[in-house]
Write a structure and sequence with these properties.
The protein has six helices and 19 strands. It is α+β, with helices and mostly antiparallel strands.
């Protein structure tokens, strides 16, 4: 894989020529392929995504950041390729305060001719937030699932958006309009089918943060639909790891989300491991996530600042 350097200038966090809403500037040198972004906290994916009172970058935004950085760097015909991400780990949330936050993503070729990436803040004292591997593949047809068949198996119950977002508020997760995409949730035996929609949808994204985050939110149906539990969760669960995400097509304004437990999921109150498909209205898989692992948020207080730890 070869890389290109399409650079412009980032000054004091202000850049009128952003490459992408999540990737603002190519800040590469001869020694390193790197992109940088400055978030003020007013961006919809931060403003409308609050955990315990703090504006936190959604875990799915890191995936779109990595995808776009690789696409910007790949010296190939972008119409003929697709990008898969593997072995993803979220190690520490990105929290935006009043001063804003500057984020970098660096890309490295590995011995398998794949692309490793690291997302971090700080230039000298770096804090690693996420890492993974990107694989560039020739574009291939995605599977088509039978939505009516899946719906016919999800008859254990149904959740309304109000049910879901009340449960989220109860554990300190506050979603604004840009991240309240759940429209319907149908609960089956160890699986969930959900309709998510946001309109109007910005078309600058392939993995739209609001749609993708709403897809993950729909997993609340597995928790609230578990007849072995007699009460709602009391702590939020945040992304921890993801085995693989296959990116076949752009997220659309209306998506269907099919969620089920991964084959190696171990029943636990602390950790949840899921396989998640995002489908268009014809049932075509646009995004497939395998082995998405989330775990209970732990907190600690350092002086007067509340730190979120994964």
């Amino acid at each position: 894989t070869t890389y290109t350097n399409k650079s412009n200038t980032l000054l004091n966090g202000i850049n009128p020529k952003k490459l992408h809403p999540l990737i603002h500037e190519n800040t590469s040198t001869l020694a390193e392929q790197k992109f940088s972004s400055f978030f003020t906290g007013t961006e919809i994916f931060l403003k409308d995504h609050t955990i315990k009172g703090q504006h936190v970058l959604p875990g799915v935004a890191y995936l779109e950041m990595a995808r776009e950085a690789v696409m910007q760097s790949a010296d190939t015909d972008i119409e003929s390729i697709q990008i898969h991400l593997e072995n993803i780990v979220w190690s520490r949330p990105i929290v935006s305060d009043q001063a804003g936050v500057r984020i970098n993503i660096s890309l490295y070729s590995n011995e398998k001719e794949q692309i490793d990436y690291e997302i971090y803040s700080g230039d000298n004292d770096q804090i690693l937030h996420s890492q993974g591997t990107a694989i560039i593949k020739q574009k291939e047809k995605s599977d088509i699932l039978d939505l009516s068949l899946i719906r016919s198996k999800c008859t254990k119950g149904q959740l309304s958006p109000d049910n879901c977002y009340a449960a989220f508020r109860n554990v300190g997760l506050e979603y604004g309009p840009g991240h309240q995409g759940i429209k319907e949730v149908y609960i089956g035996d160890g699986e969930v089918l959900s309709k998510v929609s946001l309109s109007p949808l910005e078309h600058d994204y392939i993995l739209h943060p609001g749609i993708m985050d709403s897809a993950l939110q729909a997993s609340i149906g597995l928790v609230l639909g578990d007849t072995n539990k007699d009460e709602a969760p009391t702590k939020p669960m945040l992304p921890f790891a993801l085995n693989e995400v296959q990116i076949h097509a752009r997220c659309e304004e209306v998506m269907w989300v099919h969620i089920k437990y991964s084959e190696d999921h171990a029943k636990s109150e602390q950790i949840q491991k899921l396989d998640i498909d995002l489908l268009d209205e014809s049932g075509k898989i646009c995004v497939r996530m395998k082995g998405y692992t989330s775990r209970i948020l732990e907190e600690k207080n350092e002086n007067t600042k509340n730190h979120l730890l994964l």
